[in-house]
């Protein structure tokens, strides 16, 4: 399938900015077909840099994306939200990915990602999804482990409280 345009998700933008595995595929797409991203993916990138670095680095990341001629799509109307919600209700994905994919469906372009959560949607053929490197399933696994650990901590705290309450004052 010949693709005339790609929409980059946040992990593609990170790979491009940090020179991670697969960034060559994204650079080639930039030189060939051209690329865009939805503004919500820029939000993800900006937040990551704010949390892990500082505002100057976050601003520099957005400037680099602009200098690479990645067009930024800002449409976020009710129809796009509905389309994104339908996608998210049928497949496991983040809200930004759902919005980016709905944008791709509207524009008729391919979604460039390494997010393994999107493999089932790719297999369905509903929207063209291209992986710029083998899908990354570890991120979701790490998130699940963190969430389970947090739940375990909360349960432990509740049980400790119940134990102290049952024992009464010393």
How would you characterize this protein structure?
It is built from eight helices and five strands. The protein is of the alpha/beta class and 170 residues long. It has a five-stranded parallel beta sheet with strand order 3-2-1-4-5. Helix 7 links the parallel strand 4 and strand 5. Helix 1 crosses helix 2 and helix 3 packs antiparallel against helix 4. The radius of gyration is 20 Å and the shape is elongated. The model has no long low-confidence stretch (mean pLDDT 88).
Structural class: alpha/beta
Q: Compute the average pLDDT.
A: 88
Radius of gyration: 20 Å
Beta fraction of the residues? 5-15%
Assembly form of the protein: single chain
Biggest sheet, in brief? 5 strands, parallel
Write a brief caption for the model.
The protein is built from eight helices and five strands.
Key attributes of the depicted protein:
63% helix; 170 residues; elongated; alpha/beta; 5-stranded parallel sheet; 14% strand; 5 strands
List the helices and strands and how they pair.
Layout: E1 6-8, H1 10-18, H2 23-31, E2 35-38, H3 39-52, H4 55-67, E3 71-73, H5 78-90, H6 95-107, E4 110-115, H7 119-124, E5 129-136, H8 138-167
Parallel strand pairs: 1-2, 1-4, 2-3, 4-5
Helix pairs in contact: 1-2, 3-4, 5-6
């Amino acid at each position: 399938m010949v693709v005339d345009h790609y929409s980059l998700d946040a992990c593609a933008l990170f790979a491009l900015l940090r020179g991670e595995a697969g960034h060559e595929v994204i650079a080639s797409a930039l030189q060939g077909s051209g690329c865009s991203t939805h503004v919500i993916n820029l939000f993800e990138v900006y937040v990551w840099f704010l949390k892990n670095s500082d505002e100057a680095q976050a601003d520099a990341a957005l400037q680099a994306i602009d200098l690479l001629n990645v067009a930024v799509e800002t449409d976020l109307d009710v129809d796009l939200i509905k389309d994104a919600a339908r996608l998210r209700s049928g497949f496991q994905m983040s809200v930004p990915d759902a919005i980016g994919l709905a944008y791709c469906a509207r524009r008729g372009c391919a979604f460039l990602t390494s997010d393994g959560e999107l493999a089932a949607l790719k297999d369905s053929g509903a929207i063209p999804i291209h992986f710029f490197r083998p899908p990354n399933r570890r991120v979701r696994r790490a998130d699940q482990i963190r969430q389970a650990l947090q739940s375990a901590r909360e349960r432990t705290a509740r049980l400790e409280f119940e134990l102290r309450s049952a024992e009464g004052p010393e």
